[in-house]
Design brief:
Blueprint lengths: L2 E4 L13 E4 L3 E8 L14 H18 L7 E8 L2 H6 L1 H12 L5 E6 L10 E9 L2
Parallel strand pairs: 4-5
Antiparallel strand pairs: 1-2, 3-6, 4-6
Helix pairs in contact: 1-3
Length: 134
């Protein structure tokens, strides 16, 4: 899907995200928060933030593929974590997982630490918006 990455020189250079993305056409896909739930409805990788991040991204990908898109159609991603320090401590491994799904493509992103998620064992939840070509 044609889009423009917007990183104005008047803002601090982004690292691992884009300040904005402008879409030129396409269909909007709003993806509900995805955790490390497997097809049986169980959280995979208990106590493993990297494994849960991988499963959550895999679940996001399943929704995008079902809509006829690909991961680089994501224009906005919000990552919710229950422990920001754990996320930061595993940033290199999480970055490798991220790049295995999206390469060096970075949508507009935010990371938010929350007290808890719906599933008590969930450490990560990823909510996204994608723009998929017509």
């Amino acid at each position: 899907m044609p889009k423009s990455i917007l990183n104005p020189a008047t803002l601090a250079p982004p690292s691992g995200y884009s300040h904005g993305i402008m879409s030129r056409g396409g269909r909007l896909l709003f993806i509900a928060g995805q955790t490390a739930l497997n097809a049986d409805g169980r959280i995979t990788h208990p106590s493993d933030i990297v494994g849960q991040f991988r499963q959550a991204l895999a679940n996001v990908r399943e929704v995008i593929v079902a809509a006829g898109g690909e991961m680089t159609d994501i224009v906005q991603m919000t990552v919710f974590v229950t422990d920001k320090a754990a996320y930061q401590a595993h940033l290199k491994s999480i970055g490798a997982v991220y790049q295995s799904f999206l390469g060096r493509y970075y949508p507009a992103m935010a990371l938010i630490e929350v007290k808890s998620l719906w599933d008590d064992e969930a450490l990560v939840e990823i909510m996204s918006v994608a723009v998929i070509g017509d």
